[in-house]
User: Fold this.
Amino acid sequence: MESLKGKTRGEDLYDRVSAVIENMKLPWSKLINVTTDGSPNLTGKNVGLLRRIQNKVKAENPDQDVIFLHCIIHQESLCKSVLQLNHVVNPVVKLVNFIRARGLLHRQFITFLEETDADHQDLLYHSRVRWLSLGKVFQRVWELKEEIGAFLELLRKAGEFPELSNKSWLCDFAFAVDIFSHMNELNVKLQGKDQFVHDMYTNVKAFKSKLAFFSRQISNKLFTHFPTLATLEEAGANVKKYSESLDAPHREFCRRFSDFEKIDKSLQLVACSLSQDPETAPEELQLELIDLQSDPVLKEKFNSLKLNDFYASLGKEVFPNLQRTAQKMLALFGSTYLCEQAFSVMNINKASHRSKLTDQHLRSILRIATTKLNLDFDALAKKGDQQHCSH
Assistant:
């Protein structure tokens, strides 16, 4: 992680990235992939970071094309924004903040839930930067809506939240609970370490098909996969509106992910090499695919090993092109998950009461916080100089 002080233009970003790569003596010709969050200073056509990186790689290896990807989790979150459910989201967030942001009121609400034997003991906060939080917040508010209404009546504040007694709004709320729940399932599948790009993109394609399936079912008044919405009598009168609401994110999913579509054939070839038709594969891979598919030992290894371990076990002399393609596809980063995780660690440590931290301190903290090594601090302390008794 490098510190940027001042401007963050594409030129500034490139200078810092270039300095790191050269200091680590990494060959530019080996760079095959850069994954970003899609901001303009990164993706600008003429002076963005990616354009400068591509020019640098081409200068050293004219045959090398860098694969630029827009974080798949970020794109999925942008697709969610076209649902046009702000008239539901804003009142729910306002309600949660009204209860939780006031200490005394929050304690009274918790006590009220305990006295009424509610299924939950508290509400959840929603943070706009946490993509998973919204669906969980909606589910919790829906399950506690009766208790919340009774609590507001005791406070004589029910008039500030008329939506809770509006049947049409509650129907939209139930629809939002279900669709956000489905989106949360996708989001969970896309997060985590050791995620191969082909698995992530397969989940996205599956969800895109599910959206079209949901739309057709709802238009036929079938709410099998929308259990919350199915509990309301008003659902049947709004099937056209909800079907059109699902069509919007489906179109957005189809419009986005073009960068992943470009490499989809290569991803499938690596992920499902045993079922690929050699005649439709690139010419340099055709004979190697035939050899692979004809070898029963390799078939067994393919089914029993992880993909990276399987392709690492192939002999370079027999499968040079197939192994090279697999290395390229399996090395891709489908999301900026690791970067976001490291950035969260930095924000936690770089608090206002630790203002003396330098860049070197942060770098050291991050190395310790993100390492997979198990450190034996007791052994390290014993190896150090003799400690003073005051310590």
